Each structure stands twice: as C-alpha cells, then as structure tokens.
Amino acid sequence: MTELPPEGSIPHSAGQSEERIARLVRLAARAFNRSLQMRLNTEGVTFGQWIFLRILWSHDGLSQRELSDKAHLTEPTAHSALRRMEELGFIVRRNVGSNKRRQHAFLTEKGWDLRDRLEPMAVETNESAIAGLKDDEVTILRRALSKMIRNLEHDEKVGASRGLKIPSTRSRNGL
User: Fold this and answer.
1) Which UniProt keywords apply (predicted)?
2) How many angstroms separate the CA atoms of 45 and 114, rounded?
3) pLDDT at 140
4) pLDDT per residue over 41-77, tens digit each?
5) Pair 68, 100: CB distance under 8 Å
6) Residue 57, number of CB atoms within 10 A of its CB
7) Which residues are registered as beta bridge partners of 91?
8) How far apart (Å, rounded) are the C-alpha atoms in residues 37 and 27?
9) Residue 45: what pLDDT?
10) Count of CB atoms within 10 A of residue 68's CB?
C-alpha cells in the first residue's frame, strides 16, 4: 500500500465544509482518471479505450450505438475510439445479421489479454483513493454517491420534460 500524503498537502479550500459538492466530486473524478491513466500508459491504453474495453469484457459484440450508450459518450466519440482500438488490434468490427450498416465490436485475443493486466491497475487506483478511510466510511461514501447520481438523473429527466436540453459539444463550441 502506498503512503498517504500529509493532510496539509490537500488545498485548504478542499477540506472546508462549505466547499461545493460538485467541485469536490469533479476534482475527485479528475484525480481518479489521472491516477488510472498514469497506470494505463504502461500498456499503451488511453482512459477512453479503457472505458470501452471494460464494457466489452462484459458485453462483447455490442454495436457502436450500444457501446456509446453504455459509456455515456456520443457516437462520434465512440466511433473514433473504436477505430483507434481496431488499429491497435484490440478489437475487430464487423456486421452482424442482415443490417449491413451497423457494425459490432468484438475483442481480439489481444483485447482479452489486456484484461489481466489492466483490471489490477483499476483496483490499485481505487485502493489508493480510499486509503485511510474506514470500511463504514467507504460504505457511506458509496451510498451517498449512488444517491447523488440517482438524484441528478431524476433532475435531468424532470428538466427534459420541461423542455430543458443539454447542448451538444458542437453547439457549445460554435461548430
């Protein structure tokens, strides 16, 4: 197990009780991603590829649309990632059934072999993140984050029913 950073190494504002939850969650997610990416780099895998590999390890043969839905990413983002994963030899894409337009992604032997090397990296990242927390604190944290996710998913549905929309990345960037 790695040694914990000293308490004073965390920015003072991050420890204040009035700090916004949204900011703390964003900073934690960013730190998780960076910590895992640091490890994934040793295998030449990006964080984005990791997301799709994890899904395919459980649900091999999904279509690009199904993968993008499960990853909560846009289809163009999935398309780019899958194309690169195919170039790297992690997956093959092919048509299934009579639909000649819909391609499905299937892991290659190389893609399956990555699982044994990458999953321990994710476990190590998670263990690093919860180091110093008691078991009951981890349980409470899981429950609280799960509840927050459900609350925000509900909020999004309510907003959508009132006609509120999340702009696409293209429209936000003026494209």
Assistant:
1) DNA-binding, Transcription, Transcription regulation
2) 9
3) 97
4) 999 999 999 999 999 999 999 999 999 999 999 989 9
5) no
6) 15
7) 107
8) 15
9) 95
10) 21
Residue that the structure tokens 């649309």 belong to: 65
Distance of CA 93 to the CA centre of its chain: 22
The torsion region of residue 89 among left (phi > 0), alpha (psi -120 to 50) and beta comes to left
> pTM for this one?
0.77
Mean pLDDT of the chain: 88
* b/e map 28-40, b = 16+ CB within 10 Å: eeeebeebbbebb
Q: For the chain, give the secondary structure using H, E and C.
A: CCCCCCHHHCCHHHHCCCCCHHHHHHHHHHHHHHHHHHHHHHHCCCHHHHHHHHHHHHCCCCEHHHHHHHHCCCHHHHHHHHHHHHHCCCEEEEECCCCCCCEEEEECHHHHHHHHHHHHHHHHHHHHHHCCCCHHHHHHHHHHHHHHHHHHHHHHHHHHHCCCCCCCHHHHCCC
For residue 168, the model assigns a pLDDT of: 64
What's the whole-number mean pLDDT along residues 160-169?
81
pLDDT at 8 over 60: no
